[in-house]
Amino acid sequence: MGNKEQETQHFRTKATALEKLEVQFAAEYRRHLQTERGDFLCKVANKSRSWKIRFPAMLSSVVFWGLIALIGTSRGSYPFTHSMNPHLHPRLYHGCYGDIMTMKTSGATCDANSVMNCGIRGSEMFAEMDLRAIKPYQTLIKEVGQRHCVDPAVIAAIISRESHGGSVLQDGWDHRGLKFGLMQLDKQAYHPVGAWDSKEHLSQATGILTERIKAIQKKFPTWSAAQHLRGGLSAFKSGIEAIATPADIDNDFVNDIIARAKFYKRQSF
């Protein structure tokens, strides 16, 4: 048997083993759902030995590491990292700048003119209104997010806040003709790249965001990851010079973005 045939047979063997493991897990999980106790014993025979595995805690652990072993032996010995494919693992990927789901936010600022459309509920309401317009860009957003190690949900939140998914733009520009694209880059500060809804535009704007975050990290090395992200978002909107204290990053734009990002993370961004 040639090397190519051996390799093909190797992958077929791994695929078969993986399928059997998945079937076993599904069967045991269904059995768990049907029992009132939910803590039964599962026997797995292996030649002359057998193990008793407590379900669900131990079984899920065995299945997980079994999947890891199978994937690892078929793809090589490279370990998993936090930068896994966001398209396949949308709820696990949060990039290099902190987990937005653990960050506190008050949402959009309330004032006399927006008492009903403010706070976290107000931010989520607007994010949900923009979801249909932003959804077609989801794959693109994830690709750009992975490239720059930025949470795709944060990118989606900026798009929602700045252009409502492009629904309010005129040929890619705001009504004054000063800001361009889904993420609304100011033409007086940047030279726009690509079409207004293109990967090039999203990559340029997200790259600017990461530059701002790294600048804040350098300027305030003792700040937390959450503060660095907040500072980067604030600098993306108003510039690095405007930030001198933690109070400067607790503003309407930042709180609204984080609240919207949490909503989009729950929508698998």
TrEMBL record:
Q: Give an example GO cellular component term for this record.
A: extracellular region
Q: Which GO terms describe its molecular function?
A: lysozyme activity
A Gene Ontology biological process term: defense response to Gram-positive bacterium
The residue ranges crossing the membrane are 53-72
Q: Where is the signal peptide?
A: none
Q: Which UniProt keywords apply?
A: Disulfide bond, Glycosidase, Hydrolase, Membrane, Secreted, Signal, Transmembrane, Transmembrane helix
Main location class: secreted
Q: Which CDD domains match?
A: GEWL (cd01021)
InterPro entries in the record: Glyco_hydro_23, Lysozyme-like_dom_sf
Look up the domain of life of the source: Eukaryota
Annotated localization: Secreted
Residues folding into a coiled coil are: none
Cross-referenced PANTHER family: LYSOZYME G FAMILY MEMBER (PTHR31698), LYSOZYME G-LIKE PROTEIN 2 (PTHR31698:SF4)
Q: Which family does it belong to?
A: Belongs to the glycosyl hydrolase 23 family.
What's this chain's function?
May act as a potent antibacterial protein that may play a role in the innate immunity.
Name by which UniProt lists this protein = Lysozyme g-like protein 2
Originating organism: Papio anubis
